[in-house]
């Protein structure tokens, strides 16, 4: 299975990549919802949270660790930030390649808008 994010990971689609290692890639969201809006994705396709398996535990931990490092790098760690992972239609997921949104640079407001 391929996804637009898999193409970004492979360098086949342009993106503003801010971090990449053997397990994860992070790039700026094309439609930013906050001054800092970065997507952190596993390099291999896991479609949704429902598809996570035990073998994915390492990459999932790496995603959180990279989020922490990028938040510091972006200067948003001290004030605070939000991490979001949407799952399937009701969760608001639009790209079926698991990803973590790192959002910050302004107050994020209430967790849900409605
Ligand atoms: P979600 O709704 O949680 O599936 O989030 C998908 C996110 O991917 C949205 O915030 C989109 O703006 C973002 N997005 C879609 N295509 C691209 C792309 N080519 N480069 C960067 N971000 C993208």
Using the CA coordinates, give the radius of gyration: 14 Å
Tally of strands: 5
Order of secondary-structure elements: HEEEHEHE
- Residue share in β-strands: 15-25%
Q: Report the total helices.
A: 3
What order do the strands of the largest sheet run in, or round the barrel if closed? Answer: 1-2-3-5-4
Q: Give the rounded overall mean pLDDT.
A: 97
Fraction of residues in helix: 10-25%
Low-confidence stretches: none
General shape: globular
Bound molecules: adenosine monophosphate
Structural classification: alpha+beta
Beginning-to-end CA distance, first to last residue: 34 Å
For the report, how would you describe the main beta sheet?
5 strands, antiparallel
Give a description of the structure.
- The radius of gyration is 14 Å and the shape is globular.
- The protein is an alpha+beta fold.
- 24% of the residues are buried.
- It has helices spanning 4-9, 57-74, 88-91, and strands spanning 17-20, 24-28, 36-42, 81-84, 100-104.
- The structure holds adenosine monophosphate.
- Adenosine monophosphate binds next to loops.
Helices, strands, pairings?
Blueprint (H helix, E strand, L loop, with lengths): L3 H6 L7 E4 L3 E5 L7 E7 L14 H18 L6 E4 L3 H4 L8 E5 L10
Antiparallel strand pairs: 1-2, 2-3, 3-5, 4-5
The protein binds adenosine monophosphate (AMP).
Task: Tell me briefly what this model is.
The protein is α+β, with helices and mostly antiparallel strands. It has helices at residues 4-9, 57-74, 88-91, and strands at residues 17-20, 24-28, 36-42, 81-84, 100-104. Bound molecules: adenosine monophosphate (AMP).
């Amino acid at each position: 299975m391929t996804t637009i994010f898999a193409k970004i990971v492979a360098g086949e689609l342009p993106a503003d990549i801010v971090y990449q290692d053997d397990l994860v890639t992070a790039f700026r969201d094309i439609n930013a919802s906050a001054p800092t809006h970065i997507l952190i994705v596993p390099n291999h396709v896991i479609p949704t949270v429902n598809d996570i398996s035990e073998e994915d535990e390492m990459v999932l931990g790496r995603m959180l660790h990279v989020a922490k490092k990028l938040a510091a790098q972006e200067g948003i760690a001290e004030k605070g930030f939000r991490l979001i992972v949407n799952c399937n239609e009701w969760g608001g997921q639009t790209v079926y390649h698991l990803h973590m949104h790192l959002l910050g640079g302004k107050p994020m407001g209430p967790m849900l808008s409605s």
